[in-house]
Each structure stands twice: as C-alpha cells, then as structure tokens.
Amino acid sequence: MSALLEVQGLTRRFGGLTAVSDVSFAVSEGEIFGVIGPNGAGKTTLFNVIAGHYKPSAGTATFSGRGISGLRSDVIARLGIARTFQAVHLFAAETVAENLRRARVLSTSHGPFAYLRSFGTGRREPDLRDVATFVGLGPLLDQTAGGLAYGLQKMLGIGMALMVTPKLLLMDEPAAGLNPSEKRAASALIRRLRDERGISILLVEHDMPLVMGVCDRILVVNQGKPIAIGSPDAVKADPAVIDAYLGDDYEFA
Ligand SMILES: Nc1ncnc2c1ncn2[C@@H]1O[C@H](COP(=O)(O)OP(=O)(O)OP(=O)(O)O)[C@@H](O)[C@H]1O
Known about the structure:
Blueprint: E1 3-14, E2 17-28, E3 32-36, H1 43-50, E4 58-63, E5 66-67, H2 73-79, E6 81-84, H3 96-108, H4 114-117, H5 128-134, H6 150-162, E7 168-172, H7 180-197, E8 200-204, H8 208-214, E9 217-222, E10 225-230, H9 232-236, H10 239-246
Parallel strand pairs: 3-8, 3-9, 6-7, 7-8
Antiparallel strand pairs: 1-2, 1-4, 4-5, 9-10
Helix pairs in contact: 3-6
The structure holds adenosine-5'-triphosphate (ATP).
C-alpha cells in the first residue's frame, strides 16, 4: 500500500493556543485511519487544515504526491478529498435529490474554468441515484431533507461528500447522535466506502466500539500532540492512551 495522504509536522496555532502541534502520519491507499483523543485535542482543527479551511502555521500535507498545504478548500476537494461534518450541513427545505445535485455543483463551480479543470483528474462524475442508493436514500430522493430522521440526514451528508467522487473521505464524528442500530449501519457504510468504492477514510470519532471495529490504524492526540499511533489493539493497551483518554475502567464493548 502506498501513502495517499502524508502529513508532516503539521501545526496550527490560534493566537497563543497551539490546537495542532507537530502532527505527522500517513494514510495508505485503501486504509481506514482513525484519529481519537479527548474533547479539544485538535481533531477537527487537523481536519480543517488538511481540507484547506485553515492554513497550517507550520508543516506540510501531501496528497497523491502533491503538496496541498495552503491550497483553497475547493481546489483540495477537486483533487479528491471530501469531508463530512460533525453537525449535518444540508439545505433543509430542499429534497434529497436537490441536496445531492447542489453538492456536485458546489464542488465544480469555483471559477470560470472549474468545469474544464475537472478534466484530467481521472474521476468520473457520480450518478445521483447511484449515490443515493449507496447511502440508503434511494427511495427518498423526493423527500425534503429537513424532514428526514437525524440518522438519514447524516447519511445524506455522506452522500453529498460522495458527489465529488473523493479518493479520501474525512469523516468528522459520523456516529454522533445516532442510535445503536444507526451506528451499526454507519460502521457498515464506512467499510463499504472502502471495499466497494475504493475510498480511503480518515475518521474522527468518539464512539470507541465503532472506531476500534472499523479502523486499520489509529492516531491518538492529546492537547494537539500525537501520543500514540498503531493498530486498535496496540492503542487500546497503550498506558499513555489509557491515561489521557480511555481511562483505567475503559472496557472495549
Ligand atoms: N477558529 C478557532 N479559533 C480559536 N480557537 C480555536 C478555533 N478552532 C478551534 N479552536 C481551539 O482549538 C482547540 C482544538 O479544538 P478542536 O475543535 O480541533 O478539538 P477536537 O479534538 O475536535 O474537539 P471535540 O472532540 O470536542 O470535537 C480547542 O481548544 C478549541 O477551542
């Protein structure tokens, strides 16, 4: 497996606060890679820097061998990195189909030559129905998004990210707010994204059974700094991780 995303010494400061501090890791093609840590550890900021929403204060990110740090978020999206958000971001008054269509238009509508620039990326424009079916919304294309159950709104968020045909998907807490059966569906969907669509995943999540169950490797951050990286079993047994995050009475369900 070759590195799809490589992050080297990535740092992001907000005034006197260092939210992400000298973080390095690589995500291989086909990997499901988790990032965990306590609240405020810098996980979302790390995503925001990789996706181009924030510029790094120091360090680099390389995607498919190309430097991406400092590029605009829409440029990074067109290169093949999409993200989903902790809270659902959708157009509540519009239908599922309209939301998916908007996600596609937004991803290709920056600048007069955006359409032409989408050529040569080697990625085919996805079919709206196909994406809706993949995330379990096939029969609900004409439903208003705001009227969907919360779990289905989160699925729509994933579908919208798929409309840019990503090679890497950054998922910020996909299980937050889901009930146990929706969490099982989310786990299965994450695996299917990789197995059936060949999408590599960078996953931030507090639900430990889900993270430990789906990830190949996990990076643990605390106060912006990396404290461990390895397989779920290695990370679970690491005293520094137990101390900073999991706690002594943590039991893997
Ligand atoms: N735009 C910003 N301006 C100033 N401080 C920020 C900004 N964004 C994040 N921070 C701070 O950076 C630190 C890391 O926040 P971040 O949201 O990245 O943590 P997190 O690990 O994602 O937390 P959670 O698990 O609660 O989502 C926090 O102290 C937060 O207050």
